[in-house]
Amino acid sequence: RLTAIELHPHDAERLKAVFAGDFQTRVIELDGWLALGAHLPPKEKRGLVLVDPPFEEGGEFSRIVDGLSRAHRRWPGGIYALWYPIKDRKAVAAFRAALKETGIPKLLDIGFEIRPASTEPSLDGSGMVVVNPPFTLEGELRILLPALHKVTAVAQPSRWTLDWLAGE
């Protein structure tokens, strides 16, 4: 079963078209942060929540920390994967520190930078925080990330990181 939550009307319509006729999928046009409260925990009691915030306005890192904290209280056994851009290294460091302060156990942070920090705002990489990751994920990423980094890095120094912010 898939529930896709999308705030932007055009993107929600595109998702509805992609999943038209799939009785196991529903697309809801709604702010994803509001939806977390309404749709957790799922009736299956197992699942993955993938969060891809827009980062169109300031404060998105704080919204992620707050939203994750609320969602985790409702469904502590769920797996959460939260994407974030690596543009401002100080903001990313503050975000990671704020996640540590939530007290949520089992926080795995994956960082993937394709170039050194830019002097101008630029997407230099991406990160993903995974809460309650499957037990094989860390080992699999330690094999996959070096190979992926080798073919995607556009300038040196670039790097990938795999850090436990809490747990393991």
CATH architecture classification:
3-Layer(aba) Sandwich
N-to-C CA distance? 30 Å
Task: Name the helix and strand elements from N-terminus to C-terminus, one letter apiece.
Answer: EHEHEHEHEEHE
Structural category: alpha/beta
Kindly report the CATH topology.
Answer: Rossmann fold
Rounded to the nearest angstrom, the radius of gyration is 17 Å
Name the overall outline: globular
Number of helices: 5
**Biggest sheet features:** 5 strands, mixed
Q: Could you name the CATH homologous superfamily?
A: Vaccinia Virus protein VP39
The CATH class turns out to be Alpha Beta
The tally of strands reads 7
Average pLDDT over all residues: 93
Query: What share of the residues does DSSP label as strand, in percent?
Result: 25-35%
Number of domains: 1
Estimated helix fraction: 25-40%
Which stretches are low in confidence, meaning pLDDT under 50 for 5 or more residues running?
none
Summary?
With 168 residues, this protein is an alpha/beta fold. It has helices at residues 9-18, 32-39, 60-74, 89-101, 137-152, and strands at residues 2-6, 25-29, 48-51, 79-86, 107-113, 125-131, 159-166. Helices cover 37% and strands 26% of the residues.
